[in-house]
Automatic annotation (TrEMBL):
Species the sequence originates in: Cognatilysobacter bugurensis
Top-level lineage group: Bacteria
Subcellular location: Cell membrane
Gene Ontology cellular-component annotations: plasma membrane
Protein name, per record: Cytochrome c oxidase assembly protein
Amino acid sequence: MLAAAWLGPLPALAQHAFAAHMTMHVAVIAIAAPLLAFGLAGSGHDPAARWPAAFAPLPASVVELVVVWAWHAPALHHAARHAPSMRVLEQGSFLLAGLLVWVSAFGGPASRERAAAGVGGLLLTSMHMTLLGVLLAGASRALYAHAGAAPLFGLDVLQDQQLGGVLMLGVGGTVYLVGALVLLAGLLRARRSEGA
């Protein structure tokens, strides 16, 4: 997934198309990060098992919120779209923030409290991703400067931004919500087993 997002056509397209840039974001933070975290969780390389206090789900989700919203500030977003070094920094911080949230939620010592905190952290992340997606998709004007080339699929600049918002809303918000529901289902099953 990381190779497809970072080595394929998306980086070049992202200079002119907001939706391509958002596709890179979503691929990293909502697909690659959880897949990597699931591979690490419970293994001998699980950082949340080694340092559980450093991988608390709710603070991790706040860190991720700050990272995502900061990179969507117009000046940083523009720099990441047009300067390869800034794009590397942006994408790397998205990957680290995503890993932090997912490893914090699914890794570490198994306990009801940790799983409940994971539900809260993933729900908070789902909500802020959904909010950002709604803001981008529902905007009545373009929020970001573009390089002047036509965006993907013949869309105008505003439609391109709105498509990017829908991607953030539809994929970003949904994946984190599903993660929270998976943890919640595990908590409910454990409670039912104890009751039986």
